[in-house]
Protein backbone atom coordinates (compact mmCIF):
# COMPACT_ATOMS: atom_id res chain seq x y z
CA UNK A 1 0.00 0.00 0.00
CA UNK A 2 1.30 3.47 -0.91
CA UNK A 3 2.03 5.54 2.17
CA UNK A 4 -0.35 8.46 2.57
CA UNK A 5 1.63 11.73 2.34
CA UNK A 6 -0.43 13.45 5.01
CA UNK A 7 -3.00 16.16 4.51
CA UNK A 8 -0.60 18.95 5.45
CA UNK A 9 1.69 18.02 2.55
CA UNK A 10 -1.25 17.81 0.16
CA UNK A 11 -2.64 21.17 1.25
CA UNK A 12 0.78 22.82 0.95
CA UNK A 13 1.07 21.58 -2.63
CA UNK A 14 -2.42 22.85 -3.48
CA UNK A 15 -1.65 26.29 -2.05
CA UNK A 16 1.60 26.46 -3.98
CA UNK A 17 -0.07 25.29 -7.20
CA UNK A 18 -2.75 27.97 -6.87
CA UNK A 19 -0.27 30.60 -5.68
CA UNK A 20 -2.17 31.13 -2.44
CA UNK A 21 -0.68 31.90 0.94
CA UNK A 22 -1.71 30.36 4.21
CA UNK A 23 -2.98 33.78 5.24
CA UNK A 24 -5.25 33.95 2.20
CA UNK A 25 -6.62 30.50 2.96
CA UNK A 26 -7.27 31.51 6.55
CA UNK A 27 -9.32 34.50 5.38
CA UNK A 28 -11.28 32.45 2.85
CA UNK A 29 -11.99 29.64 5.32
CA UNK A 30 -12.73 31.80 8.34
CA UNK A 31 -9.77 30.34 10.24
CA UNK A 32 -6.84 31.86 12.07
CA UNK A 33 -3.38 31.79 10.53
CA UNK A 34 -2.25 29.64 13.46
CA UNK A 35 -4.89 27.06 12.61
CA UNK A 36 -3.77 26.92 8.98
CA UNK A 37 -0.10 26.68 10.00
CA UNK A 38 -0.97 23.79 12.32
CA UNK A 39 -2.70 21.91 9.50
CA UNK A 40 0.25 22.49 7.16
CA UNK A 41 2.60 21.23 9.88
CA UNK A 42 0.70 17.96 10.00
CA UNK A 43 -0.92 18.42 13.39
CA UNK A 44 -4.17 16.63 14.17
CA UNK A 45 -6.86 17.50 11.66
CA UNK A 46 -10.47 17.67 12.76
CA UNK A 47 -13.78 17.57 10.96
CA UNK A 48 -14.58 21.23 11.55
CA UNK A 49 -11.36 22.43 9.95
CA UNK A 50 -11.82 20.26 6.86
CA UNK A 51 -15.40 21.42 6.44
CA UNK A 52 -14.13 25.01 6.27
CA UNK A 53 -11.07 24.36 4.15
CA UNK A 54 -12.93 22.39 1.44
CA UNK A 55 -15.14 25.18 0.03
CA UNK A 56 -12.34 27.69 0.46
CA UNK A 57 -10.23 25.52 -1.85
CA UNK A 58 -13.08 24.80 -4.28
CA UNK A 59 -13.45 21.13 -3.32
CA UNK A 60 -16.50 19.13 -2.38
CA UNK A 61 -15.93 18.41 1.30
CA UNK A 62 -16.46 14.67 0.84
CA UNK A 63 -13.58 14.54 -1.66
CA UNK A 64 -11.23 16.35 0.67
CA UNK A 65 -12.13 14.00 3.55
CA UNK A 66 -11.33 11.02 1.33
CA UNK A 67 -8.08 12.53 0.02
CA UNK A 68 -7.09 13.24 3.62
CA UNK A 69 -7.72 9.60 4.54
CA UNK A 70 -10.44 10.47 7.05
CA UNK A 71 -13.83 8.95 7.69
CA UNK A 72 -16.55 10.78 5.78
CA UNK A 73 -19.30 12.17 8.05
CA UNK A 74 -22.70 10.55 7.55
CA UNK A 75 -24.34 13.79 6.43
CA UNK A 76 -21.99 13.98 3.43
CA UNK A 77 -23.00 10.58 2.05
CA UNK A 78 -25.51 10.09 -0.78
CA UNK A 79 -29.06 10.17 0.53
CA UNK A 80 -30.17 6.68 -0.49
CA UNK A 81 -28.02 3.68 -1.36
CA UNK A 82 -30.88 2.40 -3.52
CA UNK A 83 -30.29 5.26 -5.95
CA UNK A 84 -27.05 3.59 -7.07
CA UNK A 85 -29.06 1.56 -9.57
CA UNK A 86 -30.30 4.68 -11.36
CA UNK A 87 -27.48 7.23 -11.01
CA UNK A 88 -25.43 6.15 -14.06
CA UNK A 89 -28.51 6.02 -16.29
CA UNK A 90 -29.55 9.56 -15.34
CA UNK A 91 -26.21 10.80 -16.61
CA UNK A 92 -25.83 8.52 -19.64
CA UNK A 93 -29.25 9.34 -21.05
CA UNK A 94 -28.90 13.03 -20.23
CA UNK A 95 -25.67 13.24 -22.21
CA UNK A 96 -27.47 12.02 -25.33
CA UNK A 97 -29.77 15.06 -25.11
CA UNK A 98 -29.20 18.61 -26.38
CA UNK A 99 -27.61 20.97 -23.87
CA UNK A 100 -30.87 22.82 -22.97
CA UNK A 101 -32.53 19.54 -22.03
CA UNK A 102 -29.54 18.53 -19.92
CA UNK A 103 -29.91 21.81 -18.06
CA UNK A 104 -33.61 21.09 -17.66
CA UNK A 105 -32.86 17.76 -16.00
CA UNK A 106 -30.33 19.38 -13.68
CA UNK A 107 -32.93 21.97 -12.67
CA UNK A 108 -35.43 19.19 -12.06
CA UNK A 109 -33.02 17.46 -9.69
CA UNK A 110 -32.58 20.76 -7.83
CA UNK A 111 -36.34 21.26 -7.58
CA UNK A 112 -37.27 17.86 -6.15
CA UNK A 113 -38.11 17.96 -2.43
CA UNK A 114 -35.39 16.80 -0.05
CA UNK A 115 -36.47 13.49 1.45
CA UNK A 116 -35.44 11.99 4.76
CA UNK A 117 -32.34 9.80 4.92
CA UNK A 118 -33.49 6.21 5.47
CA UNK A 119 -30.35 4.16 4.88
CA UNK A 120 -26.76 4.17 6.11
CA UNK A 121 -24.18 4.59 3.38
CA UNK A 122 -21.00 2.53 3.38
CA UNK A 123 -18.31 2.75 0.72
CA UNK A 124 -17.91 -0.89 -0.18
CA UNK A 125 -15.04 -2.84 1.34
CA UNK A 126 -12.31 -0.24 0.80
CA UNK A 127 -9.85 0.50 3.57
CA UNK A 128 -9.97 4.04 4.91
CA UNK A 129 -6.30 4.72 4.12
CA UNK A 130 -6.39 3.09 0.71
CA UNK A 131 -3.90 3.38 -2.12
CA UNK A 132 -4.38 6.39 -4.43
CA UNK A 133 -6.61 4.30 -6.68
CA UNK A 134 -8.70 3.38 -3.67
CA UNK A 135 -9.20 7.02 -2.79
CA UNK A 136 -10.46 7.80 -6.30
CA UNK A 137 -12.80 4.80 -6.37
CA UNK A 138 -14.08 5.84 -2.96
CA UNK A 139 -14.91 9.31 -4.31
CA UNK A 140 -16.88 7.70 -7.13
CA UNK A 141 -18.69 5.48 -4.63
CA UNK A 142 -19.75 8.61 -2.78
CA UNK A 143 -21.37 9.69 -6.03
CA UNK A 144 -23.61 6.61 -5.89
CA UNK A 145 -21.59 4.61 -8.40
CA UNK A 146 -20.87 0.94 -7.91
CA UNK A 147 -18.18 -0.77 -9.94
CA UNK A 148 -20.65 -1.69 -12.68
CA UNK A 149 -21.94 1.89 -12.80
CA UNK A 150 -18.38 3.17 -13.08
CA UNK A 151 -17.75 0.87 -16.02
CA UNK A 152 -20.87 1.97 -17.86
CA UNK A 153 -20.59 5.69 -17.20
CA UNK A 154 -16.88 6.11 -17.84
CA UNK A 155 -17.25 4.23 -21.12
CA UNK A 156 -19.81 6.79 -22.28
CA UNK A 157 -18.13 9.92 -20.92
CA UNK A 158 -14.44 9.09 -21.52
CA UNK A 159 -12.15 6.85 -23.63
CA UNK A 160 -11.79 4.48 -20.64
CA UNK A 161 -13.64 1.20 -21.17
CA UNK A 162 -13.00 -1.29 -18.36
CA UNK A 163 -14.85 -4.15 -16.70
CA UNK A 164 -16.53 -3.72 -13.33
CA UNK A 165 -13.97 -6.03 -11.72
CA UNK A 166 -11.14 -3.81 -12.98
CA UNK A 167 -12.55 -0.89 -11.00
CA UNK A 168 -12.51 -3.16 -7.99
CA UNK A 169 -8.86 -3.96 -8.69
CA UNK A 170 -8.07 -0.24 -8.85
CA UNK A 171 -9.89 0.30 -5.58
CA UNK A 172 -7.91 -2.43 -3.83
CA UNK A 173 -4.60 -1.28 -5.28
CA UNK A 174 -4.16 -4.29 -7.56
CA UNK A 175 -4.17 -2.18 -10.73
CA UNK A 176 -1.94 0.87 -11.01
CA UNK A 177 -3.31 4.28 -11.82
CA UNK A 178 -2.19 5.62 -15.18
CA UNK A 179 -2.27 9.18 -16.56
CA UNK A 180 -5.16 8.15 -18.82
CA UNK A 181 -7.18 6.81 -15.88
CA UNK A 182 -6.50 9.85 -13.72
CA UNK A 183 -7.48 12.17 -16.57
CA UNK A 184 -10.79 10.40 -17.08
CA UNK A 185 -11.54 10.04 -13.38
CA UNK A 186 -10.84 13.75 -12.88
CA UNK A 187 -13.33 14.67 -15.62
CA UNK A 188 -16.13 12.65 -14.03
CA UNK A 189 -15.30 13.88 -10.54
CA UNK A 190 -15.14 17.52 -11.63
CA UNK A 191 -11.62 17.92 -10.22
CA UNK A 192 -8.70 19.62 -11.96
CA UNK A 193 -6.66 16.81 -13.51
CA UNK A 194 -3.32 18.36 -12.57
CA UNK A 195 -4.37 18.50 -8.95
CA UNK A 196 -5.84 15.01 -8.84
CA UNK A 197 -2.69 13.62 -10.47
CA UNK A 198 -0.44 15.37 -7.97
CA UNK A 199 -2.56 14.36 -4.98
CA UNK A 200 -2.51 10.71 -6.08
CA UNK A 201 1.15 10.63 -7.08
CA UNK A 202 0.65 10.15 -10.82
CA UNK A 203 3.01 11.94 -13.18
CA UNK A 204 1.44 13.61 -16.22
CA UNK A 205 3.89 13.95 -19.10
CA UNK A 206 1.72 16.70 -20.52
CA UNK A 207 -1.38 18.50 -19.31
CA UNK A 208 -4.50 17.19 -21.08
CA UNK A 209 -6.93 19.65 -22.67
CA UNK A 210 -9.93 20.75 -20.58
CA UNK A 211 -12.72 18.15 -20.32
CA UNK A 212 -15.43 18.25 -22.98
CA UNK A 213 -18.73 19.97 -22.22
CA UNK A 214 -20.41 16.56 -21.93
CA UNK A 215 -17.95 15.52 -19.22
CA UNK A 216 -18.51 18.78 -17.32
CA UNK A 217 -22.27 18.21 -17.41
CA UNK A 218 -21.82 14.57 -16.41
CA UNK A 219 -19.86 15.58 -13.32
CA UNK A 220 -22.52 18.13 -12.34
CA UNK A 221 -25.44 15.74 -12.86
CA UNK A 222 -23.73 12.91 -11.01
CA UNK A 223 -22.94 15.15 -8.04
CA UNK A 224 -26.40 16.67 -7.76
CA UNK A 225 -28.11 13.26 -8.08
CA UNK A 226 -26.56 12.31 -4.73
CA UNK A 227 -29.42 14.12 -3.00
CA UNK A 228 -32.12 11.93 -4.55
CA UNK A 229 -33.95 9.02 -3.01
CA UNK A 230 -34.12 5.80 -4.99
CA UNK A 231 -37.67 6.62 -6.10
CA UNK A 232 -36.69 10.13 -7.18
CA UNK A 233 -33.62 8.83 -9.01
CA UNK A 234 -35.74 6.29 -10.87
CA UNK A 235 -38.19 9.04 -11.85
CA UNK A 236 -35.40 11.26 -13.23
CA UNK A 237 -33.74 8.34 -15.02
CA UNK A 238 -37.02 7.32 -16.68
CA UNK A 239 -37.70 10.92 -17.68
CA UNK A 240 -34.23 11.29 -19.20
CA UNK A 241 -34.78 8.10 -21.15
CA UNK A 242 -38.18 9.23 -22.41
CA UNK A 243 -36.77 12.61 -23.47
CA UNK A 244 -34.44 10.79 -25.87
CA UNK A 245 -37.49 9.50 -27.69
CA UNK A 246 -35.93 6.23 -28.79
CA UNK A 247 -34.72 2.91 -27.40
CA UNK A 248 -31.22 2.92 -28.84
CA UNK A 249 -28.24 2.15 -26.67
CA UNK A 250 -25.42 4.46 -25.72
CA UNK A 251 -22.56 5.91 -27.71
CA UNK A 252 -19.14 5.01 -26.35
CA UNK A 253 -16.80 7.91 -25.56
CA UNK A 254 -19.60 10.34 -26.37
CA UNK A 255 -17.54 13.58 -26.31
CA UNK A 256 -15.38 12.20 -29.11
CA UNK A 257 -18.20 10.80 -31.20
What does this structure look like?
The protein has 257 residues and is mainly alpha-helical. It has two domains: 52 residues, 434 Repressor (Amino-terminal Domain) (Orthogonal Bundle); 176 residues, no CATH class. The chain is 54% helix and 0% strand. The protein is built from 14 helices and no strands. Helix 2 crosses helix 4, helix 7 runs parallel beside helix 13 and helix 9 crosses helix 10. The longest helix is centred in the last third of the chain and has 15 residues.
Q: Can you give me a brief rundown of this structure?
A:
This protein folds into two domains: 52 residues, 434 Repressor (Amino-terminal Domain) (Orthogonal Bundle); 176 residues, no CATH class.
Mean pLDDT: 91
Can you tell me the number of structural domains? Answer: 2
What is the straight-line distance between the termini?
A: 38 Å
Helix and strand pattern: HHHHHHHHHHHHHH
Spatial shape: globular
Question: Would you report the number of β strands?
Answer: 0
Number of helices: 14
Structural class of the secondary elements? Answer: mainly alpha
Radius of gyration: 18 Å
Helical content stands at 40-55%
- In terms of per-residue confidence, which ranges show pLDDT below 50 for 5 or more consecutive residues? none
Q: Beta fraction of the residues?
A: under 5%
Which sheet architecture does the biggest sheet show? none
Amino acid sequence: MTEHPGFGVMLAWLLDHRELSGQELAVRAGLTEDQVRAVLAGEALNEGLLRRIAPAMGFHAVDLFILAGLEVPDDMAPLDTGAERWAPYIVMDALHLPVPQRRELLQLIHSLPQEERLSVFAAKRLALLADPGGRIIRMLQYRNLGWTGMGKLLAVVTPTYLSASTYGAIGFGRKELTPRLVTDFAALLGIDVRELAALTGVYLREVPPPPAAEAVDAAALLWEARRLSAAQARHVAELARSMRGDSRGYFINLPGS
